[in-house]
Specification:
Number of domains: 2
Shape: globular
CATH superfamily of the largest domain: TonB-dependent receptor, beta-barrel domain
CATH architecture of the largest domain: Beta Barrel
Distance between the termini: 46 Å
Length: about 900
């Protein structure tokens, strides 16, 4: 007992001791993107205020942290403003070496600027010649006018005119890229000379005009280090101007968190509802309506849906991606059907993997710890000419937190090997991009051999899943025209992990295939502002064979063909005001066959108004809709489920082909901005949900002939299935948060979520709304499983002594989860039971040490550091503490 107490004291005390060490470790190093962005913005602000030398120093620091060609250009322009033309030319030369789109224009002006310097100093200088054939400049720049001005300048200085382009010296070869801070101007080919005032003034004027051309090609410098998000809109956009509530979890945050699974990372997102059943089965929803086998969030990997169409929901261990291969995760909170169609109901999670330079070289990773947890793998990637690639082979295993069935139970026996195992996955995947100039081709594929588990809805408990899954995808991009296609395949055996001997087994097998194709294109035009119109269409084929479904066409698999069309109009009324309208029309064959909706069509509009009150201070108002279509399971199930403790009795589950799609309308008002190093994010929302699909009550057999199951002769105590809940449900909430970067290498985040759910005119003949969860019933079971208060605190720190520290703290308030069970003595045949769940505080963290120039890394990661034992669902495991030793190496 004393040893146990000592271990607890050590576990609780080591974060404090570590913090003392880190405080004495010296100043922090930069977190690449966030800190480069901070230095860049500071530099541009200083230059705009006339403090050019200080601004140049900040820009050089930004480039040293995370090189970007446009920073070189901005440094060169700043040197022109300062009057230091030779240093300006030096940085223009480095910019040209990166092969930018406006390279030919920059080379043309550079050659003549050098000639102007030669004339002003009276000494010949090397000439950087323009290529023999230079393409025309953008429409808003008159290159001939620029050249005429330069020629006049040369004539006024009395210098000889440069040789014609056809006879000019060859263009300067590209030097190897180097951080600007490490390059001394005096080491360049240009020497400091005395420049005449006339030459300075003219060069500054020309550089200003050239800057206009550069921005037309490269875009505004304000977005150089801004993360471009792709999930919130058809077109990529900056975080600040995304037309939806958005959270981005970046690469450094993922690496330094020590998270072993993707759901662990998603806990830090405001508005997320998490119910972890065991280490592999986590139910995630947004803004309410969580449940077992949660089905309200669409999960994508590189834009490919991994939603399980036959059942609904996501099997997280089967995502064909290792946590270490993730470049970032984009989370859209709120309805997303206007872009992604069915099942993007409460939100969208898009997991974007590394490719090319992001995955350069070979890398091995490993982490191991208690609960028989082990993750490891090897990846290799890089860029060779026009080809970028990454491939990974990985292994992932973990046991349950606690046993589902005690060892002394003799009435239940395991139906699968290793029943205390939560997951075991062997995976391999490959991704590649080939650059054909104006056309980009992206392809990939993957394969999983898995054993995992899920806790289904209803009276049954943990099911085991064993089998294989795979995918293949292809994407062709040519500007605004894109074609995407993928194939998802699943082959598995499933059934209860424990089951009594001597009664009918519920083991079955599943075969599922999904083919999905999307094509889109876009147009830009002007008319009372700038317009960006995108249109597209899609097709989705589903093929499912499953023993739980009713026999179909002599045993043939179920097949469905889905079609959709969509459009998005982005209207930039002015620099401050934008209006974005998205619309999608989906055709569901089941809704058509049963005449549930007119022609089987479901409409999903969404509109957003963005107003930039001040630079980087954006107000957003969004109204959108979403739907979730009935699954194969809900529509076609036909299953006799015996009652374990009464083997002669059972319940007959039968699907319904007349289910309406679940529908949501949500309105939200948001603010996203930047105040110095602080980025606030505020959202308030209200939502209405209708036609929620739930399992129905128990109906007694209508006549004696239906009281006996014809397939096995056992007695049926009742029939059940699925139905649409009556009435409407309403939710209101707010999400307050922000990120703060007080110093290089230090990133802090804090967010708070509040949500309240109501049911209106749901039961009986009366009207009105209620959120009373004190009486267990269907209303309580629908709206009572949401914690009203959630707080997330995150922190990252990377020090000069190569020590990394990441920590996240999650507080979730108490709630009462209500579950139903069959009871023929109750009205409707269902007994509702409440299960109070206490509030909990979950602390996760990681400390790591980098050495050999960051090529090797070792660390210690903790999940539930303080061992706050708690359940997040009444039927889930008691969640304990997990300690992992981690190691990674790059070669």
């Amino acid at each position: 007992m004393e040893n146990s107490k000592g271990a607890t004291r050590i576990a609780r005390g080591w974060p404090c001791a570590l913090l003392v060490v880190l405080l004495a470790a010296g100043p922090a190093l930069a977190d690449a993107r966030a800190d480069a962005k901070r230095h860049f913005r500071e530099g541009m602000t200083l230059i705009a205020s006339g403090q050019i030398e200080r601004g140049i120093a900040e820009l050089k620091q930004a480039y040293a942290i995370k090189p970007h060609p446009d920073v070189l250009y901005d440094i060169a322009k700043a040197y022109v403003d300062l009057g230091n033309i030779p240093d300006a030319l030096s940085y223009f030369k480095q910019y040209v070496a990166t092969d930018p789109e406006d390279k030919d224009q920059v080379l043309s002006v550079m050659g003549r600027l050098q000639a102007a310097i030669a004339g002003g100093a009276g000494q010949p200088q090397p000439v950087i010649a323009a290529p023999p054939t230079a393409p025309a400049a953008p429409a808003n720049v008159d290159v001939q006018k620029l050249l005429a001005q330069l020629q006049a300048l040369i004539n006024a200085q009395g210098a000889p005119a440069p040789a014609p382009a056809a006879a000019a010296a060859p263009a300067v070869a590209k030097p190897p890229a180097a951080p600007a801070a490490a390059v001394k101007p005096e080491e360049e080919m240009f020497e400091a000379e005395t420049i005449s005032a006339n030459t300075r003034a003219t060069a500054k004027e020309l550089a200003s005009e050239l800057g206009t051309a550069h921005e037309a090609v490269a875009g505004s410098g304000e977005d150089i280090f801004e993360e471009q998000v792709v999930t919130a809109s058809v077109r990529s956009s900056s975080e600040s101007k995304a037309p939806a509530s958005l959270t981005v979890i970046g690469e450094d945050e993922i690496r330094m968190s020590g998270a072993a699974t993707i759901p662990e990372l998603l806990r830090r997102v405001p508005g997320i509802d998490v119910a972890e059943m065991d280490p592999s089965d986590t139910n995630i929803s947004m803004r309410g309506f969580n449940r077992r086998v949660s089905n309200k969030v669409l999960v994508l990997v590189d834009g490919r849906s991994v939603y399980q169409d036959f059942l609904g929901g996501t099997f997280w261990p089967l995502l064909d991606v290792a946590v270490q291969d993730i470049a970032r995760i984009e989370v859209i909170r709120g309805p997303g059907s206007a872009l992604y169609g069915a099942n993007a109901f409460a939100g969208v999670v898009n997991i974007i993997t590394k490719l090319g330079d992001e995955a350069a070289g070979a890398r091995a990773f490993m982490q191991a710890g208690n609960h028989d947890t082990f993750q490891g793998g090897v990846s290799a990637g890089g860029k060779t000419g026009k080809l970028s690639y990454r491939t990974t082979v990985a292994y992932d295993r973990a046991d349950k937190w606690t046993k589902d069935v005690s060892d002394n139970r003799v009435d239940l026996v395991p139906q699968f090997a290793l029943p205390n195992r939560s997951r075991e996955v062997q995976r391999a995947d490959v991704a590649a991009r080939y650059d054909l100039g104006k056309v980009q081709m992206i392809g990939g594929g993957g394969f999983d051999n898995f054993a995992t588990e899920v806790v289904p809805i209803g009276a049954l408990r943990t099911f085991a899943l064993e089998g294989q899954s795979g995918f293949a995808r292809l994407e062709v991009d040519s500007g605004q025209t894109k074609f995407k296609g993928f194939w998802n395949a699943l082959r598995m055996n499933t059934g209860p992990e424990y089951w009594p001997d001597g009664i009918q087994s519920l083991k079955s097998n599943v075969r599922s295939d999904v083919l999905d194709f999307t094509a889109q294109t876009g147009f830009d035009f002007k008319g009372l502002g700038q317009h960006h119109l995108n249109i597209g269409a899609g097709y989705r084929f589903k093929n499912v064979s499953w023993g739980y479904l009713a026999p179909h066409d002599g045993g043939a698999p179920y097949q469905e063909n889905h079609f959709n069309v969509f459009m998005q109009e982005e209207w930039d009324v002015s620099k401050k005001l934008s209006v974005i309208f998205s619309y999608r029309l989906d055709r569901d064959p089941l809704l058509y066959q049963a005449n549930v909706t007119a022609a089987g069509l479901v409409q999903s509009p969404r509109g957003t108004i963005l107003y930039e009150v001040r630079p980087e201070q954006v107000l957003r108002f969004t109204v959108g809709s979403a739907f979730r279509e009935p699954t194969f399971f809900e529509s076609y199930i036909d299953l006799f489920a015996p009652i374990p403790n009464q083997p002669a009795l059972g319940v007959r589950f039968q699907g319904s082909q007349t289910l309406k799609p679940e529908q949501m309308v949500q309105a939200e008002l948001g603010y996203r901005g930047r105040i110095g190093a602080f980025q606030p994010d505020i959202v308030v929302y209200a939502e209405r949900v209708q036609n929620l699909i739930d399992d129905a009550g128990l109906n007694l057999p209508a006549d004696p002939s239906r009281a006996v199951d014809p397939s096995n002769g056992q007695y049926i105590i009742g029939y059940t299935g699925f139905y649409n809940l009556p009435g409407s449900f309403f939710g209101v909430g707010t999400e307050l948060g922000g990120k703060w970067t007080p110093a290089d290498g230090v990133d802090l985040g804090l967010n708070y979520s509040y949500e309240r759910m109501f049911g209106c005119s749901v039961f009986g003949a009366g009207s009105g709304c209620s959120n009373d969860t004190s009486v267990p019933n269907q209303l309580t079971a629908t709206v009572g499983n949401v914690a009203q208060h959630k707080i997330n605190l995150t922190g990252l720190w990377r020090t000069r002594v190569n020590i990394d520290l990441g920590m996240d703290v999650h507080f979730v308030s108490a709630l009462t989860w209500t579950e139903g069970s069959f009871d023929i003595t109750r009205p409707g045949g269902v007994l509702y039971t409440t299960y109070p769940l206490s509030a909990y505080t979950l602390i996760n963290g990681r400390v790591g040490y980098r050495f050999l120039q960051d090529k090797l890394e070792a660390g210690l990661a903790a999940y539930n550091l303080l061992d706050d034992g708690h359940r997040e669902h009444p039927f889930g495991n008691m969640i304990g503490r997990r300690i992992l030793v981690t190691a990674a190496g790059s070669f």
